[in-house]
Design brief:
heterodimer; A: alpha/beta; Peroxisomal Thiolase, Chain A, domain 1; 11-stranded mixed beta sheet; 15 strands; globular; B: mainly alpha; Non-ribosomal Peptide Synthetase Peptidyl Carrier Protein, Chain A; fatty acid metabolism (chain B); phosphoprotein (chain B); ACP-like_sf (chain B); fatty acid biosynthesis (chain B); cytoplasm (chain B)
Amino acid sequence: MKRVVITGLGAVTPIGIGRDKYWNSLFRGKSGIDYITRFDTEKYDTKIGAEIKDFSPEDFMDRKEARRMDRFTQYAMAGTSLALEDGDIKLEKLDRERIGVVIGSGIGGMETLEKEHSKLLERGPKRVSPLFIPMMISNMAPGQISMVYGIKGPSFAITTACASSTHAIGESFRMIQRGIADLIITGGSEGAITPISLAGFNSMKALSTRNEEPTKASRPFDKERDGFVIGEGAGILILEELNHALDRGATIYGEIIGYGATSDAYHITAPDPEAGGAKRAMELALKDGKIHFSNIDYINAHGTSTYYNDKLETLAIKKAFKEHAYNLAISSTKSMTGHLLGAAGGIEAIATILAIKEGIIPPTINYENPDESCDLNYTPNTLIKRDIKYAISNSLGFGGHNASILLKKYME
Amino acid sequence: MTNFERVKNIIINTLEIDEVASITMGTSIMDDLDADSLDAVEVMMALEDEFDIEIPDEDAEIFKNIGDIVRYIEEKIN
C-alpha cells in the first residue's frame, strides 16, 4: 500500500478564508456566528448562523463561470484554488489523468432549487432556468473543478449529510493507497443557509435558538447547549501519494494513515444510544492505521452542540479509548465555525492537520457548564500546546453514517 | 431605446458580457459570444419577459444572429 500525505489546504470558512486566517481564528477562539443577513428571519425560531461575509467569487474564478454555479460550487472552487496555490501544484506539469476530485456535499444546490421553485410556482414551468438542474445537483462541485482545471481522473461527489467530507477524504485516501490516483483534490462544500433549509432544521429542533447571544450559541459539550448553528463554506485538501509529493518537493503537512466508516442502522436523525457506530468508526480507523488507541493525542470531535450528539460521541470515545479517553485532548472547532454540514469534515481535517503540525490544540469555546454525561477533556476556552503525533477527526451524519480519519505527524 | 438596444442589454445582462461595443445586428450569440445552448435558452426566456411575448423553440432555432431576433420581435409586437 502506498503512503498518503496532505500537501495543500484550502479553507473557506465563516472565521476566515485561507489557511492562515482560518488557523489564526481557530487557535484564538474566535466565533464566526452572527445574525443571518441573507434573508429575513423574523418568522424563524433561529435567527443566527455562520455566514461567510467576505466572499467574492471573482477572486477565485471567472465571473461568467461563477454565474453558472450554485454557492456551494463556488465555495468548492474557491477552496480548490486556495489548496492548489497552497500546495504549489502546477497542474500543467502533472499527468492529469492520474489526478482525481472527490468532494462531499450534504445538501447540494439548495439556494438554486429554492429560487427556481419560486419561479415555477409564481410564473409557471416555462420560466425555470435551463441552468437549474446543472447548478443544483450535488456532484457539480467536483464536476466543475474537473472541467475548470482539466482534471481527468476519477471525480465524484459523496453525500452522507454531515459526514460527507470525511467520507470523501477517506475514500480518496484509499484510492491513492491502492495506486488508482497520484493526487486527489478532496474535502467538502456546503452553501445551505437558505430559507427552506433553516425552516427544515428548525422544525427538527436541531438548531440553537440562543438568538440573544450569537457568539455563544455553539457550545459543544456544555450543559446549556441547545442545538447546532448552521454554517457554510468549504474545506479542501490535497491528498498525494508520498513519492509523488517528494518528487516535486512538496511541503508535507502530515500523513493520513487510517479511515473507518460504519453505519448506526438505527434512526434517520438520532444517533444510536449505545454509540456503537461512532465507536466502531474510530476503532476501524485505528486498526486501518495499525495504531493502538493509547497512542492518540487529540480528537477533533464532531461535537455539534446538540444534546444527543455530544453526549453519545463522548460515550463512543469512552468505549473506543477506555481509560485513555481521559488522557486525550478533545475539541470541537464547531464552537467557532458553526456546523458546515457536508463541509464540516473538510475544515475539521484542516484544523486537525494544522494542530498536529503546529503542536497546538484549538479550543472548544463557550464551555462554561460541565455536563455529567460529557466528562472528558474538551480543551475548554483556550488552546493548549501539546506535541501531537496521532489525531482523529470524526464526522457523524443524519442517516446514521459515521466516518473517522486517522492523521499522523509526518516523519520520513 | 431602440429594440436592438433592448435586445442587446438583455443579452449583456444574461450572459454577463464585458465586451459590449462589439455587439452588432450581425453578432451570433453562440458563435461570437461563446454561449452554449443553455445560455441561449436563458436569453430567449429573458427576451420573452422583456417584450412580453412567447418565442416557441422552433422559432428560436432559426435565429442566426441578433438581427434575426430583433426583426422577429418587431414582427411579434407590431
